[in-house]
Write a structure and sequence with these properties.
alpha/beta; 4 helices; globular
């Protein structure tokens, strides 16, 4: 069964970027340290990265994050989603208008202009089709940015939440939670490594 999983790195004070993020400074000042775990040799970090990318049938991201990832200083063979792991899933971008051009033409991009709910529905369809082809259950992964994940949680679209809690206080940046209705979480696992605490929840 395909599930909708939000998966994002966050600081101890609740930020998913540092101050002043932008196309040329995607994670903001100091924000790169949020993702130290993804490049770590710690076995626990490697397991989370490997298992997370392995279950990704489709990945959803917002337009701002797409512009960073597809920008000149964005993803490459070493830093792209699941680079060096199990392959490249399809990507669905929530946007008001498709970009005029795409740098990362080797990836499967779909641009949805009718809102987050429609983007998640399209991603679920793609993930279910991929599940059928591969004979295994694959999920929709909401990778960010923070506004996309927060909006999906507020709208009740998220069934699971994975937080990679970095031992870092940024002081400012893009917050993950900015309000919305209360949500009850059921903790499923906690794994501490040398670079992060990986927290997995079901969202009721």
């Amino acid at each position: 069964m395909t599930r909708i999983i939000a998966d994002i790195s966050v600081s101890l004070d609740g930020f998913v970027t540092g101050p002043d993020p932008g196309p040329d400074n995607g994670l903001g000042t100091g924000g790169e340290a949020l993702h130290t775990w993804a490049f770590s040799d710690d076995p626990g970090d490697r397991r989370y990265l490997r298992e997370g990318t392995a279950r990704s049938g489709t990945v959803v991201l917002g337009r701002h994050l797409f512009d960073v990832d597809d920008g000149p200083n964005g993803w490459d063979d070493r830093t792209g989603y699941g680079a060096g792991e199990v392959g490249k899933p399809a990507f669905v971008v929530v946007t008001s208008a498709p970009p005029r051009s795409v740098r990362l033409t080797d990836l499967d991009w779909t641009f949805v202009t009718t809102g987050l709910r429609d983007a998640v529905a399209a991603a679920r369809d793609r993930a279910e089709a991929a599940s059928s082809r591969r004979g295994e259950n694959l999920d929709v992964i909401l990778m960010g940015g923070g506004a996309t994940v927060g909006s999906a949680l507020a709208a009740g679209l998220v069934e699971g939440l994975t937080l990679h809690l970095a031992p870092l206080v940024l002081g400012a940046g893009t917050p993950l939670f900015t309000g919305g209705p209360p949500r009850t979480l059921v903790q499923r696992s906690v794994t501490s490594t040398s670079t992060a605490t990986h927290l997995t929840y079901d969202v009721l």
